[in-house]
Amino acid sequence: MSAPANRLVSVEVDDSIGRGPSPEAEHERNTAIYDLIEDNRFALTNGMNGPYHLILSTQEGRLVLDVRDEAQRPMMAFGLSLTPFRRIVRDYFQICDSYYEAIKLGTPAQIETVDMARRGLHNEGSEILMERLKGKVDTDMDTARRLFTLICALVWRG
């Protein structure tokens, strides 16, 4: 049985990005990749159907998304500037730190408040990503959230 056409079936992180700087960071990357592959809607807007293999790399400060077919033939490659994500990723990491502290020491109300802020930032980052993918990739919010999580995991210095 073949995989549905408009989805990612594999995600690879190129040597230009390298391994995570710590076992925790590497674990976060692997978890983000697993979650993305498990459930996604990803379709190239140029009409080329998948399923797709995605290779992520960096080049000149850009995240390069190299989309390939089942035989690993190139279908589309494009770069995304990470500049629009810098503030949101920084804020997201700060609120995640606050969330972990709240879990240890906070009241349920404090945990819920910090978690709502964390989810709000995650949604904002996902919306920016969807906007940046417009005209190249058609995806849904859940997949954009998983891709944003992966981008965060790739830049996390753990």
Structure at a glance:
By secondary structure, the protein is an alpha+beta fold.
Give a written overview of the molecule.
The protein has 158 residues and is an alpha+beta fold. Helix content is 51%, strand content 22%. It has four helices and six strands. The protein has helices at 23-38, 83-105, 108-133, 141-155, and strands at residues 8-13, 42-44, 52-59, 62-68, 74-81, 137-139. It has a four-stranded mixed sheet. The chain has a two-stranded antiparallel ribbon with strand order 2-6. Helix 2 (83-105) packs antiparallel against helix 3 (108-133). The chain is globular and about 50 Å long. The N and C termini lie far apart (39 Å).
Secondary structure tally, helices:
4
Radius of gyration: 16 Å
- Tell me the strand order in the biggest sheet: 1-3-4-5
Hey, roughly how much beta strand do the residues contain? Answer: 15-25%
* Bulk shape: globular
SSE ordering: EHEEEEHHEH
Q: Write down the overall mean pLDDT.
A: 87
Structural class: alpha+beta
**Sheet with the most strands, sense and barrel status:** 4 strands, mixed
Looking at this protein, list some descriptive labels.
158 residues; single chain; two-stranded antiparallel sheet; 4 helices; globular; 4-stranded mixed beta sheet
Topology:
Elements: E1 8-13, H1 23-38, E2 42-44, E3 52-59, E4 62-68, E5 74-81, H2 83-105, H3 108-133, E6 137-139, H4 141-155
